[in-house]
């Protein structure tokens, strides 16, 4: 876990930020200027050209633009992409990093994971050097988040908590965090309490970040490689994976996705070819509670693409 975690209302406002920091964000000046005002950051530089699913070239571009400028700290302010770039930069340069999520889903502010694209393929990387020096979780950033981003993030957090619970790398402590995270996220989504999302996502990050995600995430990357947002692709992928694994979270996760009204997924490439992309993803598949072979993967993909796994089961009247 990060050495310093600050959570709650005004957490980002009360934090003392070092001067000469570089703020890395995905948003536009009208939004982040308001945020930085609230936070009271002084004498900072901004890099705001981060795009979703950042590539290693982006990381290198940021590093190059600010070389020799005596940057004291990186501040990752935004969704998973801003934080991932920040994490990789921190590893490359040894400069400390403060991570502040504004969309609440990836839990990236808590984990040693970073997702960076190499040659247009997303790669999940893990390194202790990716861990934040300080993480700040403040619900202040929640209002105004577009519904689509909110629901994708919420779905990611719930998928991570439940896959993390089932992971072979889990232990009683990680399962404690995953279980608590899922309970909170479910309450937030099903009962329309968005203010609970930041805390749920944060606990999910601690839980799955110290175990792993599993089959649902492994299946999802072939969809995100074709442009489907990460959280969206998990709606069907994690549902089908939970059914395959006989997870205790199968029904509850599906209910969350139904509530968020996700559409079924499509895949352009042939399923056999997609299965060949998924199979080498040992980081996810080896930690799945049940062994998975290529036929299983193809069957899961068929269920995702041809059957709508989120379809409400309606009982026929007799
Ligand atoms: Zn995820």
Describe the structure.
With 318 residues, the chain is an alpha/beta fold. The protein contains 13 helices and eight strands. It has helices at 11-14, 29-39, 56-65, 80-93, 147-166, 172-190, 197-209, 215-224, 230-244, 250-259, 271-278, 282-285, 294-306; strands at 4-7, 21-25, 44-47, 73-78, 97-101, 113-118, 121-126, 134-137. The strands form two sheets. The protein has a six-stranded parallel β-sheet with strand order 1-8-5-4-2-3, covered by helices on one side. β6 and β7 form a beta hairpin. α8 runs antiparallel to α9 and α8 packs across α11. The longest helix has 20 residues, at 147-166. The radius of gyration is 19 Å and the shape is globular. The structure holds zinc ion.
DSSP E strands, number: 8
- What's the total helix number? 13
Query: Structural class, from helix and strand content?
Result: alpha/beta
Basic shape: globular
For the biggest sheet, the summary is: 6 strands, parallel
Low-confidence stretches: none
Distance between the termini: 54 Å
**How confident overall, as mean pLDDT?**
94
**Helical content band:** 40-55%
Task: Give helix and strand order, one letter per element, not per position.
Answer: EHEHEHEHEEEEHHHHHHHHH
Bound molecules: zinc ion
- Gyration radius from CA atoms, angstroms: 19 Å
What fraction strand? 5-15%
Strands ordered across the widest β-sheet: 1-8-5-4-2-3
């Amino acid at each position: 876990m990060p050495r310093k975690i600050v959570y709650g209302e005004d957490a980002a406002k009360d934090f003392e930020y070092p001067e000469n920091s570089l703020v890395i964000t995905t948003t536009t000046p009208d939004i982040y200027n308001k945020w930085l005002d609230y936070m009271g950051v002084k004498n900072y530089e901004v890099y705001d050209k981060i795009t979703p699913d950042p590539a290693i070239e982006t990381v290198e571009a940021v590093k190059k633009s600010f070389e020799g400028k005596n940057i004291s700290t990186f501040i990752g302010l935004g969704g998973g992409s801003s934080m991932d770039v920040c994490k990789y930069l921190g590893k490359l340069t040894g400069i400390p990093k403060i991570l502040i999520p504004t969309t609440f889903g990836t839990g990236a502010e808590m984990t040693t994971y970073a997702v960076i694209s190499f040659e247009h393929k997303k790669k999940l990387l893990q390194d202790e050097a990716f861990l934040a020096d300080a993480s700040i979780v403040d619900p202040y950033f929640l209002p105004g988040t577009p519904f689509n981003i909110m629901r994708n993030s919420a779905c990611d957090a719930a998928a991570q908590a439940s896959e993390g619970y089932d992971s072979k790398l889990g232990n009683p402590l990680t399962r404690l965090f995953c279980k608590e995270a899922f309970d909170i996220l479910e309450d937030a989504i099903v009962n329309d309490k968005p203010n609970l999302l930041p805390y749920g996502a944060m606990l999910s990050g601690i839980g799955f970040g110290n175990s792993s995600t599993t089959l649902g995430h492994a299946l999802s990357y072939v969809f995100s490689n074709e442009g489907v947002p990460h959280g969206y692709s998990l709606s069907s992928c994690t549902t089908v994976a939970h059914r395959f694994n006989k997870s205790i979270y199968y029904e509850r996760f599906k209910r969350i996705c139904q509530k968020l009204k996700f559409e079924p997924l499509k895949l352009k490439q042939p399923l056999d070819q997609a299965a060949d992309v998924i199979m080498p993803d040992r980081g996810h598949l080896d930690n799945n509670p049940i062994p998975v072979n290529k036929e299983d993967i193809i069957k899961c993909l068929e269920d995702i693409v041809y059957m709508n796994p989120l379809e409400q089961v309606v009982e026929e009247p007799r």
